[in-house]
Amino acid sequence: MTRWRPEIPSDATPLYLRLADAMERDIGAGTLPAGMRLPPQRDLAHQLGLSIGTVTRAYAEAERRGLLDAHVGRGSFVRGSLPDLTAPSVLFQAAHPAADPETVIDLRCNTPPAIALSRSVELAVTRLAATAQLEPSVQYIQGTGLRPVREAGAAWLARRHGLACDPGDLIQCNGGQHAIGLVLSSLCRPGDTVLCESSTFHGAKVAAEHLGLTLRGVTMDQEGLDPAALDRALAETRARLLFTLPTLHNPTTRSMSLARREAIVRIARRHDVTIFEDDAYCAYADPAERPPPIAALAPERTLYLASISKGVCPGLRLAFVALPPAMPRERLMRGIRAFGYCPPALGGLIFAHWVAEGTADAVADAVQAEAAHRLEMARRILGCAMDQPGARHAPHIWLPLAPLQAERVMGRAARAGVELTPPEASIVSRDAASGLRVCLGAAGDRATLERALTILHGVIRESDSVRTDSVV
Question: Which domains does the chain carry?
Answer without folding.
Answer: 15-83 (1.10.10.10), 118-357 (3.40.640.10), 361-471 (3.90.1150.10)
